[in-house]
Amino acid sequence: MASPAPQPAPSSALLRELATLLDAPGLQTGDAIETRFRKDWYAPLGAVPPLAVVRARNTQDVAAVLALCHRLRQPVVPQGGLTGLAGAATPEGGELVLSLERMRGVEEIDAQAGTMTVMAGTTLQAAQEAARAAGWLLAVDLGARGSCQIGGNIATNAGGNRVIRYGMMRDQVLGLEAVLADGTVVSSLNKMQKNNAGYDVRQLFIGSEGTLGVITRAVLRLAPLPSATQTALCALATYDDVVRLLRHAQRKLSGRLSAFEVMWADFYGLVTTRVPGVRAPLPAGHPFYVLLDLQGNDASQDAPVFESMLESAMEAGLIQDAAVASSHKEAQSFWQLRDAVAEFPVMWSPNAAYDVSLPIGRIGEFAETLRTRLLAVWPHAEPVNFGHVGDSNLHVSVYLPGATDLDFPEHEISDVMYGVVREFKGSVSAEHGIGFHKKPYLHCSRTPQELGLMRLIKRALDPHNILSPGRVFDLD
């Protein structure tokens, strides 16, 4: 059943009041609305622009705009860097876009607390660079770092390449400030790791995809800045060997394993033959390839430990072949293999891309089962598998040669995909969120009781259902 639709006031009245609240660059209407605000990364460009775009300068702007929209029952969709892959930031007709892009900047780095206080519109890369300049590491990292924003990273609980060591975005957030649907500012800019004073309200907003409030500022945990990295690409014969290598590396490297990226043969063959500039450090033909690295602070000590770990893995028969990066430039070339997925929308289109989570021990079996089910319906399908795996995350892309945007059966492919996810007791979303794209399949990973609790929280915090209505789930 569709969510109860907010009944907004006439747009002319809303726009007049918005004009009194905002400076000139803060409001775009009509033909002045830039095309980029119509969609996030995943969604196709829609024909219907938003009612208007608000570009808030600060928390006070956000609060005033939301109070007005709450009073007039005007639906609002918050937007960050528009790099989302679930469609949550794509506006529908009649919705107001609330962009956080002007709210950027690092307000403080507290060296004693090991924290950074940052505005929500700050790009992840800008925050990383500020932390690095101060001798710290902001641990979350993903390919869209130059465009994605901290507020969006928190609202979607972003993951990325370093989750196995540092955790998701949730694990980096010590405190935050958010504005509720009625304009109430909830400021909980906590800097302490331990704080058990009642409910932990920050958790309401982390991963809520803009449906419960608009995040405006955050206090992020920083980690000591590594000064040395050891990187290797390994070839393996079986998925069981992949899991054994993961546990072997975790034991031998004593918590310093910071990435464990797995590429199936189909992915490795595709990117090393079809993506310009990507070279193959190891010959094709092995069933699995693992990109792993150690982050430490003393190369003279880290390198022998890393090499010893690899040697013992080879002696145990876990690794068939390996290449160790001898320089930072070579390590970057290894990572180009994994990051080549960014080229898929251009060179391999149309394709259906999925981000799922499974119990680590069953990911190999899942991939084989999915391939069998897909080929039974589409014999010429080309599924490729890759993922972080050490944190249970698998990415799958499915390409159908000869298909066009008009006849590509994405919905049918999704039915097969999420049916297998449900069978394996996995999650339909590991790190990309639900948005519009995965909403029909949320029930595959959440019980009716969990969904009921989500709706209860949504009604309590947003009684008029104005914040990102229809995303994640529908209200009964």
TrEMBL record:
FAD-binding PCMH-type domain ranges (all copies): 46-225
UniProt xrefs under SUPFAM superfamilies: FAD-binding/transporter-associated domain-like, FAD-linked oxidases, C-terminal domain
Gene Ontology BP terms: respiratory electron transport chain
Flavoprotein found in the keyword field: yes
InterPro entries: FAD-bd_oxidored_4_C, FAD-bd_PCMH, FAD-bd_PCMH-like_sf, FAD-bd_PCMH_sub1, FAD-bd_PCMH_sub2, FAD-linked_Oxase-like_C, FAD-oxidored/transferase_4, Oxid_FAD_bind_N
Assigned keywords, A-Z: FAD, Flavoprotein, Oxidoreductase
One MF term in the entry's GO annotations: FAD binding
A UniProt-annotated Pfam family: FAD-oxidase_C
Swiss-Prot/TrEMBL cofactor(s): FAD
The family this protein is said to belong to: Belongs to the FAD-binding oxidoreductase/transferase type 4 family.
Protein name: D-2-hydroxyglutarate dehydrogenase
